[in-house]
TrEMBL record:
Organism listed in the record: Stutzerimonas marianensis
A GO biological-process term: respiratory electron transport chain
Taxonomic lineage of the native organism: Bacteria, Pseudomonadati, Pseudomonadota, Gammaproteobacteria, Pseudomonadales
Cofactor: FAD
Protein name listed in UniProt: FAD-binding oxidoreductase
Keyword Flavoprotein: yes
Length: 470
């Protein structure tokens, strides 16, 4: 089928409003938000219903045209960007924005894949409920993309990631059939739990078009603290102590190196250092409760006081109002933006068992600085789930291209240390294009073969987001 025939066939399904073929209008679909990955496409198709998605997939399947599913296009590994052949079709879910049902008795919400995460959060809040996934890109990322990458964020410690928050899915399979698994059940022991095949699959097994997601009681009390630590090992000791004292009230526990904070203070104008003295490491701790007057300040002060006596904490400050809470979170959320101002950076998203975070940092810092003197290591992340964003910025004043040329060697050091500590080379960003080669080296060969067998079973023609994950 030539391009014009394909355009006509798809336009009969989605209408003129569902087709993008003008090069200027297509540009935003063909590059990721960092401009790190670029591709080309025959066209972009934007179906508005599940039935339209299915019809589009059937047409492309019949004519062996590869599809690249895309949500908000906020990923970091190139998973939603087509290749450079110009033959693939980008299938954007951004017109599928209906909230189909809110069931407060069942504590669930059913939404389509194109719903923005922020709009999902607002819909939950409107019925006095909480949808707890929280990401820096929540104003532009979509539910479908969150599910396809099994997104995590800052509240995984208490609520889990998207795999934990999803009860049921609706999926268009690679041949165009629709699997309706939109069941809001917490118990269903009738065989394989198929939704978990598609969550985290990055659109390589099918296209998620809708989901039943869990809701939680609204939060009415929050306490936030900025805490200085002598080393990363103290963070592991501290989180164990605070968790034992506060239980499920512990919602966030974010670790940041001083280098991370220095970049934020230098480049994010609204931020200021909470302490007069410089410290090696910091954590941002958040407690929350459904009770309006929960004694969270007392709990956290008691926990931090005990940690201070043990030498795990050097200093601490509790936010006194919402503005101060926002200011502390701005320090954490500004790291990625701030690092961009320091020139090229090599970003890594790894996880290791919580107990091994200090060993990972110590070993990897030492190995990198010995091999690449002067590099600046920006380490931060979610201590409670073992996820570190371990990024490397070039030495000040060095050549950009020369630094970029070291990417493979730098990544190899980081991934080897991760593997040695039984970790994962991708904690929450996925594989996409960026980590295919590394996945072949560091995933168990049998595990990879089982994944390929699933791919062959569901997508024998290899038309669903080819070149991603594998």
């Amino acid at each position: 089928m030539n391009a014009q025939s394909l355009l006509h066939a798809l336009e009969t399904v989605v209408g003129p409003a569902g087709i993008v073929c003008d090069p200027e209008q297509m540009a935003s679909y063909l590059s990721d938000w960092r401009n790190a990955y670029r591709g080309a496409a025959a066209l972009v198709v934007r179906p508005a219903t599940t039935e339209q998605v299915a019809a589009v997939v059937q047409i492309c399947h019949a004519h062996r045209v590869a599809l690249v599913p895309q949500g908000g296009n906020t990923g970091l590994c190139g998973g939603s960007i087509p290749d450079d052949s110009g033959t693939q079709v980008v299938l954007s879910l951004t017109r599928m924005t209906r909230i189909r049902e809110i069931d407060t008795a069942n504590e669930t919400i059913t939404v389509e894949a194109g719903v923005l995460l922020q709009h999902l959060q607002e819909a939950a809040a409107a019925v006095d409920r909480l949808f707890p996934l929280s990401l820096g890109a929540q104003g532009s990322c979509t539910v479908g993309g969150n599910l396809a990458t099994n997104a995590g964020g800052t509240a995984v410690l208490r609520y889990g990631n998207m795999r934990d928050l999803a009860l049921g899915l609706e999926v268009v399979l690679p041949d165009g059939r629709i699997w309706n698994g939109l069941r809001g059940l917490r118990k269903d022991n009738t065989g394989y739990d198929l939704k978990h095949l598609f969550i985290g699959s990055e659109g390589s097994l099918g296209i998620i078009t809708a989901a039943v997601l869990k809701l939680y009681p609204a939060v009415r009390s929050i306490t936030t603290a900025w805490v200085a630590l002598p080393d990363a090992r103290s963070a592991v000791e501290l989180i164990g102590s605070i968790r034992a004292l506060c239980g499920d009230r512990l919602t966030g526990f974010e670790l940041m190196s001083r280098q991370s904070v220095d970049f934020v203070l230098r480049h994010v104008g609204r931020c200021s250092d909470p302490f007069a003295e410089v410290h090696p490491w910091y954590v941002l701790i958040e407690l929350s409760d459904t009770q309006p007057d929960a004694p969270l300040n007392d709990l956290l002060e008691a926990g931090l006081g005990a940690a201070l006596e043990r030498g795990w904490v050097l200093d601490a400050v509790l936010a006194g109002n919402e503005a101060q809470v926002a200011a502390l979170w701005a320090m954490r959320e500004g790291i990625s933006e701030a690092q961009n101002h320091e020139g090229p950076s090599l970003k890594h998203d790894i996880s290791v068992p919580v107990s091994r975070i200090p060993a990972f940092i110590e070993r990897t810092d030492e190995a990198l600085l010995e091999r690449f003197p002067g590099v600046r290591i920006v380490a931060y992340g979610h201590v409670g789930d073992g996820n570190l964003h371990y990024n490397v910025s070039k030495p000040p004043g060095s050549d950009d291209d020369a630094f970029k040329a070291q990417q493979a060697a730098i990544s190899e050091i980081i991934y080897a240390a991760t593997a040695a500590l039984d970790g994962s080379i991708s904690a929450e960003h996925g594989i996409g294009q960026a980590k295919r080669d590394a996945a072949r080296r560091y995933k168990d060969p049998l595990e990879l073969e089982l994944m390929r067998a699933l791919k062959r079973t569901l997508d024998p023609e290899g038309l669903m987001n080819p070149g991603k994950v594998f």
